């Protein structure tokens, strides 16, 4: 089974992703229809603590499972549009225990309940595995994000850093008004070693 990125519903595509890991989340439930006409799902205000510096959460306590189920059944969303990423052959080589990598990482299949989209907004992702509405995404996450690469004999005068790389993925999501939307989310895809000149050391060489 694989994920189909087009749904027979209203779709909205957004632009420019970013993560604000310092914000504190407030889940705001509407008190009445007069305050927020049509609002049926709690707003996610800021970055949820469950993100822990990432761009998604698999476990989000305020996730309105019953309301999401009700919306999916109401609109008769086809379960064939859902699925789990298949593991690509090129990832398999990294499972060799004798292989060494300068930036260690961990691979897994995630089922995000909330994630940040390309307009800096955290949104609900449709993921109800128990009802057959699953969107599983293969990710690769740095074990030592922003730490020096594990290199033997790294050249003097350079700084190495393990950098988390991301990929944009289209997933079926919900806004706070209960509208199903295809949106673009930034999810971890690989961990790469980058390097740059350490001008402090180069200054010593030229002095």
Please sum up the structure shown:
The protein has a domain of 143 residues: Cystine Knot Cytokines, subunit B (Ribbon), CATH 2.10.90. It is elongated. The chain has 207 residues and is mostly beta strands.
Q: Runs with pLDDT <50, length 5+?
A: 1-37
Indicate the overall shape: elongated
| Mean of residue pLDDT values | 78
- What is the level 1 CATH name of the domain at 26-143 and 166-190? Mainly Beta
| Topology pattern, helix = H, strand = E | EEEHEHEEEEEEH
Question: How is this structure best described in words?
Answer:
It is built from three helices and ten strands; from the N terminus they run βββαβαββββββα. The chain has 207 residues and is mainly beta. The model is unreliable at 1-37 (pLDDT under 50). It is elongated and about 60 Å long. The protein has a domain at 26-143 and 166-190: Ribbon (Cystine Knot Cytokines, subunit B), CATH 2.10.90. A hairpin with a 5-residue loop joins strand 9 and strand 10. It starts with 25 loop residues before the first strand and ends with a helix. The strands form three sheets. It has a five-stranded antiparallel β-sheet.
Provide keyphrases for this structure:
single chain, 207 residues, Cystine Knot Cytokines, subunit B, 5-stranded antiparallel β-sheet, 3-stranded mixed β-sheet, 32% strand, elongated
Helix-strand blueprint:
Elements: E1 26-28, E2 43-45, E3 56-57, H1 65-75, E4 83-84, H2 89-92, E5 105-110, E6 114-116, E7 122-125, E8 135-142, E9 158-174, E10 180-197, H3 199-206
Parallel strand pairs: 4-8
Antiparallel strand pairs: 1-2, 3-6, 5-8, 6-7, 7-9, 9-10
